[in-house]
Amino acid sequence: xxxxxxxxxxxxxxxxxxxxxxxxxxxxxxxxxxxxxxxxxxxxxxxxxxxxxxxxxxxxxxxxxxxxxxxxxxxxxxxxxxxxxxxxxxxxxxxxxxxxxxxxxxxxxxxxxxxxxxxxxxxxxxxxxxxxxxxxx
Length: 137
Prior knowledge:
This protein is of the alpha+beta class. Helices cover 38% and strands 17% of the residues. Strand 4 (65-67) and strand 5 form a beta hairpin. The longest helix is centred in the C-terminal third of the chain and has 20 residues, at 86-105. The model has no long low-confidence stretch (mean pLDDT 96).
């Protein structure tokens, strides 16, 4: 995170991540990394990783190391300039609330259908709260 700042390019962030993998004795990447800043983060499976990260944007990083026969998978979204705007923080926290809810109900005995429905209901509640969805009138 200390490496990310306005003006750095997505591929430079990717190179820093891979450098850390190798420095720590991983075999390399578990899969091709997605490093997407700004609107590019909305592109499913964005792989160009070649744009400049700009002030005020968020940076989506989806990456994983291949270490000891294990392929990790990690996704994080951070502000390029190190500080979330008020709206970015509101949306980030809504997603975090959904994530925490999903973890809290994942217990033995819950069916995948019930789990999916409950998480979907919570997502709808959160998205309504932050204005990403509107109730049909």
